[in-house]
UniProtKB/TrEMBL annotation:
It is a single-pass type I membrane protein. Pfam families: LRR_1, LRRNT_2. It is found in: Membrane. It comes from Panicum miliaceum. Keywords: Glycoprotein, Leucine-rich repeat, Membrane, Repeat, Signal, Transmembrane, Transmembrane helix. InterPro entries: Leu-rich_rpt, LRR_dom_sf, LRR_N_plant-typ, RLP23-like. Transmembrane segments: none annotated. This is LRR receptor-like serine/threonine-protein kinase.
Amino acid sequence: MESIMRLSLLPLLLLLLVATETTAASRCIVKERRVLLDLRATFKDPHGLLSSWRGLNCCSWYGVTCDNKTGHIIKLDLHNDNFSNEYALTGDISPSLVNLTHLEYFDLHGNDSGGASIPEFIGSLKNLRHLDLSFAGFGGKIPPQLGNLLELNYLDISFPNGTFIVRSNSSVDNLLWLSRLSSLASFLKLRSPSSGSGGRRETYADTHFLVQSRSLLRRGRRSSELSAAVTRGGG
């Protein structure tokens, strides 16, 4: 009799298991899963960091955190602490990232973008609170679109030597977007112009990113000083 009862409960348990799996998978929003697949396609991943990025439930994929209630992706943490290209993601960030409209946390620390500029479209992620692109091989200009990220309370785009060099033919206006990031308590301090090589005049902008809460500094990293040298044509 007892064995018959156990057998009769088996289909019910299987049904419950399937329902649980379906519910878990349904948490992942299809449109946002496609964004992650686009990211995986544009990254070179020699160490298989993104090997778990398969199946329906993208909320269980490596580095991905979804909101428990809405299912939207709110955190994408793909940092690399090994400081080695063997483990780093390389390549460009897919522009489809802008479709993660609920993203609050984005970390590419320690990866390798090969000297590409920080993408302007990152400034469209209006809900970002934490942005870490430090030591990730970015170069070129700092896009002023980052000034649209008014919710930021952590920003790190530093290089190994602590310097980000921006060259401009006009003025330091392309750094004034920093003043809009009041949530960062950031400030811009300009040094007096000095004569540079070739008779040009240079203005140096020391940008200090002050973090409101020390608890946001993961792994004991300090908030970094970003020094930008803006070269102006002079007579």
